[in-house]
Amino acid sequence: MLPITEGGLRPRNALDVRAKDDHLRRVLEGRDHLLFDGAMGTMLQRAGLEAGELPELLCITHPEQIEAVHRAYVAAGSEVVTTNTFGANALKLDGAATVDAVFEAAIRCAKRSGARYVAADIGPSGALLEPMGTYAFDDAYELFAEQARAAAAHGADLFIIETMTDLLEMKAALLACKEQTDLPIFATMTFEENGRTFLGTSPEVAALALSALGANVVGINCSLGPAQLAPLVRTMLAYAPCPVMLQANAGLPSMVDGRTVYSISPASYVGAVEPLIEAGVTVVGGCCGTDPDYIALERAALERHPVPERTVERHTALTSAQNAVVLHGSEVGVIGERINPTGKPKLKAALRAGNWQYAVGEALAQAEAGADLLDVNAGLPEIDEAAALVALVREIQGVCGLPLQIDSSDPVAVEAAVRSYAGKPLINSVNGKRDNLAAILPIVKHYGCAVVGLTLDEGGIPPTAEERVAIAEKIVNAAASHGIPREDVLIDCLVMSASTNQREVGEILKAVRLVKERLGCRTVLGVSNVSFGLPARPIVNATFLAAAFSAGLDLPILNPLAARYREVVDTWRVLCGQDEGSARYIEAYANYQTAPASAASSSKPNTAAAGAAASDDAASALAKLVIAGNKGDVPAVVEAMLDDTDALSVIDDHLIPALDEVGRRFEAGTFFLPQLMAASEAAKAGFDVIRERTPAAEAVRGPIAVATVKGDIHDIGKNIVKMLLENYGYAVIDLGRDVEPQAVLDCVRAHDVKIVGLSALMTSTVTGMKETIDLLHAHTPQVKIMVGGAVLNAEYAQMVGADFYAKDAAESAKFAAQVLG
Amino acid sequence: MSLEGPVRMGRPECAVDRAEALRYLGYAGQDVDAALEERIDGMFERCARTCEPAYVFRIFPARLGEKGVVLDGSGIVLVGADIARHLHGARFVAVMAATAGMTSERELRRLSATNGLDAMVYGAAASSIAEAASDACNAAIVAEARAAGLCTNWRYSPGYGDLPLDVQPAIVRALEATKRLGLAVTPTNLLVPAKSVTALVGLFDEKQDDKRSCAGCSFSPYCNLRKAGTPCYR
Fold it and tell me: How large is the ipTM?
């Protein structure tokens, strides 16, 4: 259930938490220091306790020793002790004890030590979240929610979520603590020497995204010593509006005389921490290798320094898990508009089929073309928009590092998408209607987003600049009443077509100027609306874009693949000073031609290719290009051939024979894998032209499902088979790798699959292959099964019950032809 | 004996082994035109630039238990006749994990979404980086063993012979490889990043016959690689 739109949860401000006493409240406000404790594991080892696989169980089996460690830290000056619950989640405990029992015991140990505050420790789940891993966001949330409830029930005073490397997992934990309890949340992530977490999050992104999500204190723990972490901590200090904390390691462990010692002494550790305290870090403690000696010195260091004044400049900032777009001064950014099904039949078809890869391709192409953010819209009446938006966001975030703009008019879809978004997204949009403000702003606040405010309300879109600014002001004020700062509200003054509302164009530009002057908000515009109904639209769009930049537009929403837009953006960045020294401009435009070939004309056949196509040599010309893997020239030649040859002949007389030849060469060993793939790519480029020109040319046969079996991830062979079969005109469903047998069966049933191709490379996947075949035989005896993989032969194939053994990709095509014709 | 103790880590400089990566792609001296060669080299270069190779290892005392070879204090029990043979007489076992890094995983996903050929070539190069990181780890293990007067044998990975992959979670846990390398294990016991290796190296008093062969492999009767004289190991 979605807490805001479906559960009626009222979002709260970060400081609306239950602080145990005034000192803790002052800590959360950044006005007092707070001292945590040091390592637990190091101390247990020293006490001779075999930690085993689940050190958390020691809270139940050896409570006195755990309490003794806490006591030692309290004696050294720790105000907070951290419960021994780092891995106490249902996944890691795996039935050895309940989460509730471990937290109860752990909190009892901590309380008995006499510490002023007990911090309930929450570490990573131990599973890798989708899309890099297989664990679902909602499942991770449930794990953390169980911990959060147990901690609150047994009397913890605050949460320390730590050693996180995945921003999305951190978000799941943070939301769990925030939604299940009213306790303060301290959130720290772990960074490597390259300045990022293992999953690529920078300290800047962590500071921006976690503080926006409502963490009371953000910071860094583990991995490195304080001196190495210092620059990362300083970055956090620059971006985090909330208090910043540090719990570094005491360096690297080594064995000296049978005892584990750490390379950084207490004195040099605190020597590196102290300048950071002076710079504004207010919460300190220690991680691996630190002990009460380190903490005692930190106590003294804190006492030497009052809390300094720290002002954090507030900027409009959006982030993914890896990258932040922070708008400084007159800088502008581009929001790519192409992932929106309106007017895009291919994207529509892909979304209807649940094929997210098409949108992923669009995302990567826009990123390549220089977009700074990507709009993502899944608004099709016949699909489950919320589910589609969540899937799109997940898949795009898996490969593309740009921050996203979540674009929907349905609050449920918006909440579902931003909930499992890794980072600080931009929501598109809210408007000035009372109901809409009430529905969207709580989502913006709860999930720490920024939002685009459209200047329309119950009265529609007003014609004048003044009226639009008035609506913008209403939105900004409503946002402020929800605790959303002004820099997180971006205003879209709504572009009208110059052909129908010519007078308003000037008013729009004026409105942009006034919004910036009077409200100090950043602005967004969907640029291309201006040219509806006019010829040569790119010229109108480009001229308007330049004018809008001049009026103060910060983030145009446009097609970044359009050259003319890019030119305006690139030149504006020179004129406004964003492109320092014009370096990027010069690099990109040094060889600029005044009449560049447009994308459309470059795909037309050049005269040489057309000439060749007209002759009988064309056949061999096309075949040669395919065999040589020369993808670039194939479309032009096929285009030319289609002028006087029917599509079927091009396929049957040219492309297929070329592929057959490639198959023969591969079989004979005169081609190796990349050559086979390059030829397949080239042939595909030809098929794409044919499909575009004559959609009915191909009788699609099949479908054939291909999968790398459960337990195996080697998919080179499967991918080649897929590409080749598609080229031969079969419809292929690619189930991916490490595929559960049941998923194969479900697919066979759902799509009436005729042939299943299973691939495996690892010797350990015997079972996966046999299991899948047995299941298919039991339930869908009609389906034919072919198998392949370097460590298999025909005998093995027979043994596991396959119908056919394909030695290579070419053989799989032969088998398909036997079965399907 | 000071072999046991904390996890050792390394971040070796690893280049793409061009010959090895090409071999993964099935290269055996075919004529390759300049355009394709340039594309392959471009991907190799991109791989070298983006991978972040790293390794960890830890040494545990070994003994034969009821269910298999027990590595004391690690929570690892190695089940199977083949691994028992491999570690027969070992006093210690070095447990290792090496990876080309999470950046390789992300880059591979990105390429897979846009171009199959590029993804395949990058993948081959990343495999060679993971192998090189494993070699560097292996060398560090050998050096420690030598210093202690012990001999090592070749590194043996889960999935070889009859050693099941379900030992992966215990290995990753014993090395704290999630925290140290960013390594995760899927419910089907596969490693993420995919370009990662876990392995076991035996430490012995006597010099070992340090050659790997297909003899212990359950697939040797069916394997085309073996038949072609190009086994899956070096």
Answer: 0.89
